[in-house]
Amino acid sequence: MLCVVSAVASLAAVPETRVKLPNSRADLANGEKLFEVHCGRCHGPKGEGARGPMLAQAKLARAPDDAALLKIIEEGIRGTEMPGAGAMTEHEVRQTAAYVRSLGKVPVTPIPGDPARGAEIYRGKGNCSTCHSIHGDSGVSAPDLADIGSRRSAAYLRESLVDPEASVPDSYLLVKVVTRNSQNFTGVRVNEDSFSIQIRDDSGRSYSFWKTDIAQIDKQRGKSPMPSYKGRLSDDELTNLVAYLASLKEGK
Amino acid sequence: MRSLIWLFVPAVLFAQVNVPYERIRDADKEPGNWLTYSRNYTGQRYSPLDQINTGNVGKLHVAWVHQASELDDLETSPIVVDGTMFITEPPNIVKALHAGSGRVLWRYQKDIPGDVHLLCCGKVNRGVAILGNTVYYGSIDAHLIALDARTGALRWDVTMADYKIGYSSTGAPLAIKDKIIIGMAGGEFGVRGFIDAYDAKTGKRAWRFNTIPAKGEPGNETWVGESWKTGSATSWVTGVYEPETNTLYWGTGNPGPDWNGDVRGGDNLYSDSLIALDPDTGSRKWHFQYTPHDQNDWDSTQTPILANGTVQGQPRKMVVLANRNGFYYALDRTNGKFIAGQPYVKQTWASGLDESGRPMRLPNTAPSVGGTLLWPSLAGGSNWYSSTYSPKTELYYVNAKELGAIYHKGEAEYKAGTPFNGGGQQDYKGEEPYGAVRALEVATGQLRWEYKLHSPSHAGLMTTAGGLVFGSNGSSFFALDAQKGDLLWRFEGGGNINANPISFMNDNKQYVVISSGHALFVFALD
């Protein structure tokens, strides 16, 4: 076959109005196994959330019903890091969905902290908006945080504040370019192919360079220009800031 | 000089498109035309044209563009006959264009049933075949369709197989003598593969070669129980032909289910094989299996290349290819015996090839529930798109992918009309994937040079007598020096390139063609 595996799973999406997920003990056990292999790396082995959002909650914003949940597992979510499940059969997708729903039946601890105080730290002491935007309201050198609460777990957000280089997103790469006429440019890579590279600097200005015009490219993999907030913010302030970031969800 | 006659005779004389078999057989006598999928029967995808060459390719520019109307990948490899270009477009469109201007001469569209959804990779199609004044193509719902090359009017339409259980057709047919040879797709749905031949005039099926032997036939013992009935071994890319020995060479795809081999113990013949057939009868002359009991979806459907070379001082007639499984192979095309082979990309599943060319599989390389990391990925070291061979440089060129994957084993229960995969894979990003155009010595696969690419490509190559290799990477189309691998020209096409280049002559001017995104770009010098 060709290389587009995820398309295969989407074929299984026969139009349907009402969905019934398999719910036998064996189905859930297999769903758990599949979840650990295919989903756990980002969502945490028990759906507690990590790089991907926590799924152990009664309501999933993007999956209000089971049909929507199946579609997300099969096809992924465009514009996010969530891929489609190319390696599962239709039945396995259903078992996984059933397991995801079962996670929501377990009571969860609410995220501690005061989001309103966190918002003050975001705008004030934390200086976050120098680089980050919420719906494009300020800096563009770092990722927009408008729906960061839907994308990341609280634990991941806290880790990113304390140790920004613990997990730099795949799509984020800081690049230093020295041209043949000795000009220096630093920015985030926005595109690259065999012949050219495009970067965007702190001011939001974009540049394109032919590789034949470049003397040196320094790709700072795993590096982040974000400072660590360890010691800069107190434990309580971090907790409040995380609570604020976790409250930033789609549609808000 | 005979070739020049074809080049300079005014196009008006050829207003009646007519391509008898002899013209395709002798395609080298008319280098300005592109009469069959790979230009001639050798599969070399080499153009003897040299008006565009290493000295002037830097000045190549767009002559015209043709926009497709649908958004599936445009994978067509055009046919050009005496000033008319024939292309296919998704979802099921055939068009004739004036080759000098790009203006549409006719358009045919088949209405396909609304329930055609068992497709691994979209409503793609790789082109037509021409014979006499008829154009042939395989439709996405697994029909073979014949159209009047002058008007696009339907001549006949025959059903090859049932799309409802996963059969489709995406590859360009191959016209040989009075027959149209065509393969099929559907390797992810538990179909049973075949290669078909149809009477070019009537559409009556002349023969069918089942790529999986039935009970009682030799080879069936390489399948456990009834697994042969749903074992795939499809045939979705165009094969090649040698008139001197009357031999058709055609590659086959992965065994099904793709990633779970437990239910189909054995070598699974003739999956992932090259099969030599008599095109008159469909009888098998020999076969060579590249990946016995494949569990990584490494189809071997790509177009093989017939090339001659010298091995240990002896002239050899070879059939060569850089397989999706990561190894390059040179076989003796007279008997299918292995001559030489070696990896041309990173591979971690075999310790090498034994004396007969069989891979020596390493332990713990099968897909697993928890995931098994292996190179190459399911997309392979190369894929369906064409490699090329230049008789001038005597080198084989492949657009290679350096990419690993984590292979998962999953459930594999056959249910007609549903995917039958038994798992899947995720591309491995821990080691930066990249691509490279690699020039290999044809008899050994030894690397001569490489031109590195930022990412793995999914597009074919063409060599020309102008000393060039045309290729693609992402949305860029480019030309390299065939001797040294230096970059000489590039063009940003603005959309991913999933196609093979071709070249032709019109009004004494050489053109080069590639599809990028949903458009066909045609280039020329001033």
Describe what you observe in this structure.
The complex is a heterodimer of chains A (252) and B (526). Chain A is an alpha+beta fold. Helices cover 33% and strands 13% of the residues of chain A. Chain A has helices at residues 6-11, 25-38, 40-43, 66-75, 90-103, 115-123, 148-151, 154-162, 235-247; strands at residues 174-179, 184-192, 196-200, 206-210, 214-220. Chain A has a five-stranded antiparallel beta sheet with strand order 4-3-2-1-5, with no helix packed on it. In chain A, α2 packs across α5 (90-103), α6 (115-123) crosses α9 and α8 (154-162) crosses α9. Chain A starts with 5 loop residues before the first helix and ends in a 5-residue tail after the last helix. In chain B, the strands form ten sheets. A five-stranded mixed beta sheet of chain B has the order 1-32-33-34-35, with no helix packed on it. The two termini of chain B are 25 Å apart. Chain A binds chain B through residues 1-5, 7-9, 11-12, 33, 37-38, 83, 85-92, 170, 192-195, and chain B through 117-122, 124, 185, 187-188, 253-254, 258-259, 297, 299, 369-371, 378-379, 383-384, 408, 410-411, 413, 418-419, 421, 423-426, 429, 452-455, 458, 473-476, 478, 487, 490.
